[in-house]
Structure formats: C-alpha cells, structure tokens
C-alpha cells in the first residue's frame, strides 16, 4: 500500500530537499489520489501540477491519455496521472541495498596484464 510516508521517502531520495519538503509534497499528491492509483488531470489544481510534473520527471508518477470520440465527431483527449507502488518499492529498495562490489575488484592481477607482442 502506498502511504504518505512511503511516497515522502521516495521523493526525498529522488528529488533531495528536506524531509519536511518531501512530506509536504507527498501529502499534496496523496490528497488527490486517496485510495486510488489513477486520477484525472482536470482534478489537479494548477499550482499543484508543478509537483506532479517534478515527480513524473523523477520517475515517481506516470501520465497517460486516452482519446474519446464526441457526439459531433470530434475527439477529446483525457489526461491521467498514475501512482505505481512497484516503482516506489523499487526506488526504496535501491536506496537500502548496499552497493555491490564491482566485478573487476575480484579479478586476479594476471587479468590486468596484456601479453607482450610475439609472446
């Protein structure tokens, strides 16, 4: 389940800033989503949309759209935002995982030498 705290941790990891800033941005976003994972773009206040775009650029939110035909034959495009728990989990796990030792650190010294020409 995506919580305000979980999203705040991912925001802090991806965007930096203070913990209080990340928590405020998380509360803003989660106030729109509630218990849903997809919301319509029209529901977002224009001032809050900047936060959504920043989180989109950081890989924390996705956006998509669909085109629906109107009765008069024109098409109407509807934009959506989605919050993916798997993406947040991946970001948070990457943060907590210890860095792996590069494979070249385990190679023997002979692996770094080149044979002399004609040898």
Q: Any idea of the CATH class?
A: Mainly Alpha
Estimate percent helicity.
Answer: 40-55%
Summarize model confidence as the mean pLDDT: 86
Report the major sheet.
Answer: 3 strands, antiparallel
How are helices and strands ordered from N to C? Answer: HHEHEEH
Strand percentage, roughly? 15-25%
Give the CATH architecture.
Answer: Orthogonal Bundle
What's the count of strands? 3
> What is the total domain count?
1
Strand order of the largest sheet: 1-3-2
Count up the helices: 4
- Distance from N terminus to C terminus (CA atoms, Å) equals 62 Å
Structural class: alpha+beta
Shape: elongated
Return the CATH topology: Arc Repressor Mutant, subunit A
How would you describe what is shown here?
It is a single chain. With 119 residues, the protein is of the alpha+beta class. The protein has one domain (4-96): Arc Repressor Mutant, subunit A. Helices cover 43% and strands 16% of the residues. The protein contains 4 helices and 3 strands; from the N terminus they run ααβαββα. The chain has helices at residues 4-15, 19-33, 46-57, 85-96; strands at residues 38-40, 62-69, 75-82. A 3-stranded antiparallel sheet has the order 1-3-2, with no helix packed on it. Strand 2 (62-69) and strand 3 form a beta hairpin. Helix 1 crosses helix 2 (19-33) and helix 1 (4-15) packs across helix 4 (85-96). It is elongated, with a radius of gyration of 23 Å. The termini are far apart. The mean pLDDT is 86.
């Amino acid at each position: 389940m995506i919580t305000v705290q979980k999203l705040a941790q991912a925001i802090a990891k991806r965007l930096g800033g203070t913990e209080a800033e990340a928590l405020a941005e998380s509360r803003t976003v989660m106030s729109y989503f509630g218990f849903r994972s997809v919301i319509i773009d029209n529901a977002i206040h224009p001032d809050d949309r900047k936060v959504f775009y920043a989180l989109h650029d950081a890989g924390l939110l996705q956006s998509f759209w669909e085109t629906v035909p109107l009765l008069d034959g024109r098409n109407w495009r509807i934009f959506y935002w989605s919050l993916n728990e798997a993406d947040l989990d991946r970001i948070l796990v990457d943060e907590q995982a210890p860095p792996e030792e590069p494979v070249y650190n385990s190679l023997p010294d002979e692996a770094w030498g080149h044979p002399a020409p004609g040898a």
